[in-house]
Design a protein that fits this description.
heterodimer, A: about 240 residues, 5-stranded parallel beta sheet, 8 helices, 15 strands, B: about 350 residues, two-stranded antiparallel ribbon, 11 helices
Amino acid sequence: MRVIVVDDEDLARGIVREYLAAHPDVQIVGECSNGFDAVKAITELKPDLLFLDIQMPKLNGFEVLDLLDAKPRVIFVTAYDSYAIKAFEVNAVDYLLKPFSRERFEKALLRAAGQAGDEPPDAIDNLIRSTRSLTGPLERILVRDGSRVHVILSPMVDHIEAQDDYVSIHSGGKKYLKLERISEIETALDPKRFVRIHRSHIVNIERLVRLETYAKDSRIVVLKDGTKLPVSRAGYEKLKGLL
Amino acid sequence: MHPILKDRRTLALYLLAWLAPGLTLATLLATTAKASWSGAMCFSLPAMIVYAFMSLSAWYVCRAFPLPGTDLAKTVSSLFFAALLSSALWLLVCYAWASGLEWMQPGLAPRERYLDSLPLLASFGVGLFLIAAAIHYLIESLESARRTEHNALELQVLARDAELKALRAQIDPHFLFNSLNSISALTSTDATAARTMTLMLADFLRMSMNFGALEMIRLEQEIALARHYLDIEKVRFGNRLVVQTDIGAGTLSARVPPLLLQPLVENAVNHGIAQLPDGGHLLLRTEIDGPSLRLLIRNPVDPQRIKPHGRGMGLNIVRQRLQRMYGSGGNLDVQETGGNFVVVLTVPHQV
């Protein structure tokens, strides 16, 4: 079994390494100390199992998972995160609380090994979704480009467009593609700032310059950078409420 | 104690208010009973003053029948009975006073004229007593509203104080469990380091628990606590955490509220250093500036970080404590510039 250990503290990775030394069948293929490195290492090395800390520089553990297309099996390791622990309980995901005993560690490892060959359960996807709702509106959008991660702070987003299974995020003249449904990103964003004006468009209302009406149900908005976007009837109702 | 008799000013105002019915009665007597103006005045005003005092008894009726909670019919009938009784007593007083005036100054206020005005006097007596009762009810309800408000405020203050006290003595569980995890990791690789870390953690816990019970400590003690904390964090973060202290002359003996600086140091580590892959320098500077003691903490931050969950909570508690202790004499200034987070705490310099 190939394993990556992700924790920003050397000593915390050390104890996982120490406990794993008793398992010659388990090979540590990577150790990462921050979220960016973790995404890169996991995408490139495709491990079977991940020991993942929650609080880390750059990206937290949930954000790392959210950015992965193929999610490995995960054993979460955390010291104390009341909201994360609640999410683990709700989604029946295994986790280790620091400090943990060798016995507890073995149990988690055995359980993870028992799932070998199976597809990762939906539990992780549900977990990511439920932690999102617990932490309030999305403050930044993360986009993975190969093994690189772009961080777009929510206020910097101009508008978002649906493109099949992807959303195209427009920010400061640049375009970022993210594998996500527009309805999902809509619910995660701050509803005071972002409005779904159309089936395939979300707009940052601070970028609006004007609304033009051509016919009864044919309207467009013009953004600061000159972009024109269609507005549906339902979108118009929402905009009216906010402006 | 009767609310009107409680202080002289209220009593004077009360008696002054009674001048109005006194003058009204004199006018009525002068016009309807055809008495002389001077006679009507000499009779009415003293009679009213006496009745003013008699009407103070309305308070006891009001107290015996508080408005909410008692049967209304009973209250009204009791009030009427009391009004009739006091009015009757007052009529006797009026009779005596009219006789007295006649004896002192015959012809000034002929007694018979006043006895003709008995119905007028009786209706004044009943009416004024009822008005006095109404005023007493009003005073009583205002007083009880004030009392309720006062009690509610007092409770709020007590609860807030208790909460602040509990919060400032709180040890960050994240810090505690991560430190224990470091000790657990060190036991097999470096037993001496594990013991050192255990002792540092014990010292830190003991100090913060002791400080929680104190009103004021020397800045030296608070700095020592911060140093303990940072030493422990250095074991966890390795060379990601570099601490630089710049202690101004004479600042160590200054007296400060305990655990005011500590949450700011913890914030600098948790939301600053810990969020950066390569960490950074944490600067702690103390200086005296005229009448003020100034404490500065500077740390680098990741501009793309997620703002801490329950943002500003720690800073808010510090602000509230400053407000409570120093009013406008304390200040907490927070700035984020060029990737650095700078917190400046200013308090009066006390020795």
